[in-house]
Amino acid sequence: MKKELSELKILVSRDIPEIGLNLLRQKGCELKVQSSDNPFSPEEFKNASQWADVVLASSKEKITEDFLDANPQLLMLSQYSAGYDNVDVEACNKRKLPVGHTPQAMNRATSDIAFGLMIATARNFFQMHKKLVKGEIEGFKPRANLGQELNGKTLGIFGLGAIGFEMAKKCKMAYDMNIIYCNRSENQNAKMGLNATLVSFDELLKSSDVLSVHSNLSEQTHQIFNADAFTKMKSTSIFINTSRGKVHDETALIQALKNGDIWGAGLDVADPEPMKTDNPLLNMPNVCVLPHIGSATVEARDEMSRLSAENIIQYFEKGKMIHCVNPEVL
Questions:
Q1: What's the domain range around 265?
Q2: Is the pLDDT confidence value at 1 over 70?
Q3: 111 and 101 share a domain?
Q4: What is the SS3 assignment for the chain?
Q5: Per residue in 56-65, pLDDT tens?
Q6: Total structural domains in the chain?
Q7: What pLDDT does 36 receive?
Q8: Does 25 lie in the same domain as 81?
Q9: Catalytic amino acids?
Q10: Global pTM?
Q11: Do 130 and 273 belong together in one domain?
């Protein structure tokens, strides 16, 4: 049975921006906020949640069958993230437990990272910086340190949702790139506004000069970029992943780069995260790696906080959410 907002006890698993917390406090909710500097262990998270009616969690906390069994009192889950691969949605559905999340909040910020990684990889930014720091730049050499230009090249998008669409717009406007994409369905906005073409996965691999991944992680997309996929790509192509590290097979990616099956890679994600310091990718000359900072802007994180709070408020006031993972249980 639902409670009034003013009766709710809400566990917030990380110290998120105040904008969302203040919205909940203004409604009379009682909050317990865990410091981000001292994150819960899985067992601590499970036990701490027993106090709460609602858990507002990040994508780093696992919402498993075991967690839900230990917390039958929960009325709702709210994710401080767009992705929800940390949540056992089927287990939530069995319990008719709605799950909110925050897509749209980081569209521009994450597409900026993908766009930046594309340029950084194409022009060897990270490698040139390392050489400069080590004193390895020897002056002008006509055939040294050469990168690639992007104007008029073909951008392939795997997963043309909101973030992928933002990436495609940037590439079209900046470099007049030809846009192709692999998606579950045709995107009419991309077709009409960007002259983008829906293609098969194989065609995406074979035709892309830059292949940028923006899909959710699912059983279907888990390590879909494997050894077979990389061998089908152009030897001059650049692979960009800002979605989830498990969408590509890291061992296969490393081998593809070593073999010259692809030209370079720009990554904002890894598996596991953070990437270990001895990972070969960090020392490859044609690879740019960031520590999953796609949504790390003041504006995006504030909007994520606001949306995660508004999902709670709207559910308890109106029986709906702005963004719900499993609306069938509402």
A1: 107-289
A2: no
A3: no
A4: CCCCHHHCEEEECCCCCHHHHHHHHHCCCEEEECCCCCCCCHHHHHHHHHHCCEEEECCCCCECHHHHHHCCCCCEEEECCCCCCCECHHHHHHCCCCEECCCCCCHHHHHHHHHHHHHHHHCCHHHHHHHHHCCCCCCCCCCCCCCCCCCCCEEEEECCCHHHHHHHHHHHHHHCCEEEEECCCCCHHHHHHHCCEECCHHHHHHHCCEEEECCCCCCCCCCCECHHHHHHCCCCCEEEECCCHHHECHHHHHHHHHHCCCCEEEECCCCCCCCCCCCHHHHCCCEEECCCCCCCCHHHHHHHHHHHHHHHHHHHHHCCCCCECCHHHC
A5: 999 999 999 9
A6: 2
A7: 76
A8: yes
A9: 244, 273, 292
A10: 0.94
A11: yes
